[in-house]
Amino acid sequence: MTRLGEYLAKKSVNKSMIARKTGLSKARINELTMTDTSKLRLDEMYLIALAIDTNPCDMMNVLCEGLALQEEE
Q: Domains, the chain, ranges and CATH?
């Protein structure tokens, strides 16, 4: 499961509802939540956040937790 999948599971969100509200296909939602190699586009994340009544910035902070710039040598 991807970070997005874990995030949505914690919120007990219905993926079919997200697909209906965002216009994304159910297959794409499943790919984004189950396939680690899938890439979540910014527009998709924004629409998903709106569909689940979440602040897109808060959602991005959770999904990107642990990312950091590399140290300069």
A: 3-61 (1.10.260)
